[in-house]
User: What shape does this take?
Amino acid sequence: MITAIDTSVLIDVFGADPTFGEASKDAIRSCAEAGALVACAAVWAEVTSAFPSADAARAGMGRLEVAFSPTSHDAALLAGTCWRKYREAGGPKKRVAADFLIGAHAVEQADRLLTRDTGFYRAYFKRLSIVDPTK
Assistant: This one.
């Protein structure tokens, strides 16, 4: 079982979020017991911004055993397709948001996505299996 992890869950843990930190940490642990943990480039970039250096981010992700998983060609195409549907439905973002890349990566390259942002991913990635740490 491969679990892709969304930025929000990692930031909950690294930032010791008082509301979601423990639930996110428990969910990461549970997902790790079931198999590999991965994150795409968009997640790594977002998480790195929360650390004082790239080396500190790399070390933090290493402690959680989250592997870097490059986005495949098929995942990139799926992200663009979903983003186009979003724009056609009146979505205001003019550039492909990281969430579309994260969702497409999880669909194409993992078995599920660990995220608190369930509404967005369910709306645009119907095939995506989601694990919500708050439930």
